[in-house]
Give the backbone structure.
Amino acid sequence: MHSDIAHAIDELYGVPPKDFSSARNAKAAALKAAGRAADAQAVRRLAKPSPFLWATNQLARLDSERVAHFVDVVHRVRQSQLRDPRTATEGMRTIRAELQTLLNRATEVLTKAGYRVPASATARISNTVLGAAVDAALVDDLRRGRLAAELAAPGFEVLAGVEPGRKLQLLRGGKGSERRHEQAEATRAEEQAERPRRAREAEASRRDAERRAAEAERAGDEVRELERRLADARRKLRDAQREAAAAADRARRHTDS
């Protein structure tokens, strides 16, 4: 991707959701007018983010060092947990503290932008941040503030044996910890095996939504063009009627004289 189009996309990810569609369409139109149809199409395909996804992406813009630090902490805890599950307690405590700071900042971003922050907002942002931090395919997007979709589950089983949608729990050492660790590993393996399928389904759904949106936009353009032509035809008809009436009037006057 060219640096200028990447810059344009970065700018769009910083635009609040209520202004996203108009800003995206304006950039796409400018690119198309400049003869860059492929870039224009790439920009037009960008989906409008939810307020919670937008707030998550703003973390990288407002405090990139803390986001990078959080990713590093998660990586270190994952490695430590794989070596010795008994280290999970302190690691999870550190992760929770770092994550809470990011969540507080995201909530502040939403509030300042005029968005309501429901109880579900914290879970949605938390799932997205955690899910991206442990996913090699998404961690760079988290660091750059360019996540394209919310993540429904954090995929955090490697740390705590968490089932999707459940509250994070600690893996404690002592009797039975080895079995729980094996179960966590099995759950993680199953989750990783399912990810490609879910990713394909999500991508197919996104492309279908984009296709439908593009078709609706084209249909709207066609309707507007037909309306313009109809208005033009009506104007010409009125002009012709006035001309005919004037000609008839002149003919009558000529006959009378």
